[in-house]
Amino acid sequence: MAQQEVVDQKPPSLRPLYRALFEEGRRNEVLNLMEIGAAAFHLQEYDLARAAFDQAIVNIESVYADNDAAHRARSLWYEEGEKEFKGEPYERSMVFYYRGLLFLREGDYGNARAAFMSGLLQDAFAEEEQHATDFASLIFLAGWAARLDGNGSLAKQHFAEYRRLRPNGPLPDDDDNTLVIAETGSAPRKLADGVGHYQLVYRRGREIQTQGARLETAAVSQSLFPIEDVFFQASTRGGRTVDRIIEGKVQFKKSAEATGDALTSVSDSSVLAGLSTSAGGAVAAGFHTITAIGVAAQGLSARSRTRADTRYWRRLPDQIHLTTVRSDPVSNGSRMVFLDADGALMVDRVATIAVHYDGKGNGFAFVRSTPEGVSP
């Protein structure tokens, strides 16, 4: 089938993204797959989202897995000075976040958990050195997936790790069966800075107005917990604030250096390699998620002096909010109201929620605030 035929078969709003995928080739393939996956997810075109994220994961794991083949691929990748986009740690983690949500929606809890754990692995990978992972939303979601899968002890471990990062974060009630997620704001931006534009810096998305979300049903009005600041994830490594990245080397802000040093540093690369490449319950039960990854440093620094790469995943949110509730199909028809920085209702940001129930009676609902960010 010709590329144009493939494009013509896609929903009209997604066709420009598929056209870009074919026209821009390998250099932007992963980035375009990320954009297609997110746009399709937001449009509830789940088959297309699944296919795009799966292909993106194949590309990412060809370079960012903790095994010999990936080590060799990383070395070759940098030595040749290629600039194929693979994403920063937060972007790669978010690919697995969306893939895990798709598994959750399908009732495939084992694979959902494996995807979230693989996202944690990517959070720890960086080009220049090892870092701790602190992606609280992925840890919570791994616990939720384990809970739905009937593994209470593993869920308890994940929730305990989550509470270390979010001491005030809510935990699911015993009878909760539905996960509700809301995303707000627009993606973190990458900008070139300094003489010659060799330095990469991060900035929060522009004109973000929506700061909170509240679930409203006939019986409940419940605020969602702001579990993840995606900009924070972009602009830190293991909790340490990145000042700028110069030729692949992170320069940290000195005032924030102590933050990440308190995190536990334990390496178990054999287990983590399994997390990266396996699915369906192959994750070791005792995995400790706040873990520094033994990433080989050699061969990871850029060999040629190039300007900062400012390409970034534009359809990511600024923040992720979530809650869990007890619901059933009869109570479907709730709504999500979005809030500004003062906690006031934004009357033009109200969305009806359609809860999807898998074959096991568990629900999943996802809402994205609009019109912030890039329209699908």
Protein architecture, described:
With 376 residues, this protein is α+β, with helices and mostly antiparallel strands. It is 37% helix and 19% strand. The protein has twelve helices and 14 strands. A hairpin with a 5-residue loop joins strand 13 (356-357) and strand 14. Helix 7 (109-124) crosses helix 12. It starts with a helix and ends in an 8-residue tail after the last strand.
Please provide a brief summary of the model.
With 376 residues, the chain is α+β, with helices and mostly antiparallel strands. It contains 12 helices and 14 strands. Strands 6-10-1-14-13 form a 5-stranded mixed sheet. Strands 2, 3, 7, 8 and 9 form a 5-stranded antiparallel sheet that branches.
Structural Rg: 20 Å
Count of beta strands: 14
Give the ordered list of helices and strands.
Answer: HHHHHHHHHEEEEEEHEEEHHEEEEE
Provide the residue-averaged pLDDT. Answer: 81
Strand content: 15-25%
How far is the first residue's CA from the last residue's CA?
25 Å
Q: In one word, what is the shape?
A: globular
Poorly predicted runs of 5 or more residues: 256-304
Largest beta sheet, briefly? 5 strands, mixed
Helicity range: 25-40%
Which class best fits the helix and strand makeup?
Answer: alpha+beta
Widest sheet: strand ordering: 6-10-1-14-13
Q: Please, how many helices?
A: 12
